[in-house]
Amino acid sequence: MRAVVQRVASASVTVDGQVISSISRGLMVLVGIGTDDTPADVDVLSNKILSLRVFSDASGVMWKSSVKDISGEVLCVSQFTLMANTTKGNKPDFHRAMSSESSRQLYSTFLDKMRQLYVADRIQGDVEVLPI
Hints:
The protein has about 130 residues and is of the alpha/beta class. The chain has 2 helices and 6 strands; from the N terminus they run ββββαβαβ. The chain has helices at about 40-50, 100-115, and strands at about 1-10, 10-15, 20-25, 25-30, 75-80, 125. The protein has a 4-stranded mixed beta sheet, covered by helices on one side. A two-stranded antiparallel sheet has the order 2-3.
């Protein structure tokens, strides 16, 4: 699994002009799922994302607080293109990305795990709406 994590003041996902998910202060996470990823990878990545100290503490010292520490929100978006191999030629190779149905299941497991480890309504992400 790969994740691109961005600290945000706010973030949203819009599909066909309609806002599907949105958060205020917290983390925007793009998640790529590979062919060899397992539920064990979900556990590791979920814990890592929620524990990353990328926010300042109450006294303003940077890199001291996690999203949980600041009671922030997390917006997750499945992004198979993170698994692209671009080392050869100009056309991305997505063979390392997990197939659609399998990745939907593992992404759903990832969202469930994030909600178990933190406050469920502070984790945004939708398996049915977002492209996998």
